[in-house]
Amino acid sequence: MTDVRGAPRTKADRKGTQMSKTWYITGTSRGLGRTWATAALQRGDRVAATARDIHSLSALKSEFGDAVLPVELDVTDRSTSQAAIQKAHAHFGRLDVVVNNAGYSHFGFVEEVNEAEARAQMETNFFGALWTTQAAIPLLRHQGGGHIVQVSSSGGVIAFPSLGIYSASKWALEGLTEALAAEVAGFGIRTTLIEPSAYSTDGPGVSAVRSNPNPLYQPIRDAVATAMDPATLPAPSATVAAVLAVIDAEQPPTRLVLGSSTFDQILPTHERRLKTWRDWESVTRSADA
């Protein structure tokens, strides 16, 4: 293989029994996106890595050379998102995996969040993923298939105090993706919602945004901060084997929770929801007449 652009898949491209893949990952400057991009490259895959600051990708490019294509991208700009993914597709000749990972956490109780903060959270976490997804679908359909991975969160399944607007953005992404899965399956396009627990990324740190605090909520705020102490959280590298297993699966799951803490919270949460629906079933059915 002399050129990564559109090169045919050969035995030299294989890693174990898996054929080499080409990824497009948003938000690879740090955190989970950077971890997954590095893991993909280390096993011989190719990656179009995006970031708002392209200089943050210099080390990745230096280490992996032509296997990585750095792309400057602000996911909130729809036209730029379309151009970026088209550039990556033209460069590599195809895209097997599109990962919508770019996003940030907004900490603020519902009463505290102002209009600009709410809109900014949705612009990045929801609309950013929507623009990339819309741009990817025709490309994947034309090539006969692919895999769209939407990075949601434990907050996309369970809502936590002080993260209401963040959860709103992730719940919106989950609803969009459930519809998307049914819409594109016939084109050979698979979808997976990844729902990570909290990891020791900088999510609560430099990339997070915080609303002006109301002191009435301080006790709850302190409890949330203690629960999300990075020193107590697993490293992002703990997710690598699970994510690669999903990417390599012939029939990937439509949803995958990452981490025991979220898994252990989801089951009782859904059991409580089911109990409430059953307890109120007679009232629900009375609305038929």
Structure overview:
It is globular, with a radius of gyration of 20 Å. Helix 2 (58-64) links the parallel strand 2 and strand 3. Strands 3-2-1-4-6-7-9 form a seven-stranded parallel beta sheet, sandwiched between helices. It is built from nine helices and nine strands. With 289 residues, the protein is α/β, with parallel strands linked by helices. Mean pLDDT is 90; it is low at 1-17. Helices cover 45% and strands 14% of the residues. The chain has helices at residues 31-42, 58-64, 78-92, 115-143, 164-184, 218-227, 240-248, 260-279, 281-286, and strands spanning 22-25, 46-51, 68-72, 97-100, 106-107, 146-151, 189-196, 209-210, 255-258. It folds into two domains: 11-258, NAD(P)-binding Rossmann-like Domain (Rossmann fold, 3-Layer(aba) Sandwich); 264-289.
Describe this protein with a few key phrases.
single chain; 289 residues; Rossmann fold; 2 domains; two-stranded parallel ribbon; 9 strands; 14% strand; globular
Task: Describe the structure concisely.
The protein is α/β, with parallel strands linked by helices and 289 residues long. It contains nine helices and nine strands.
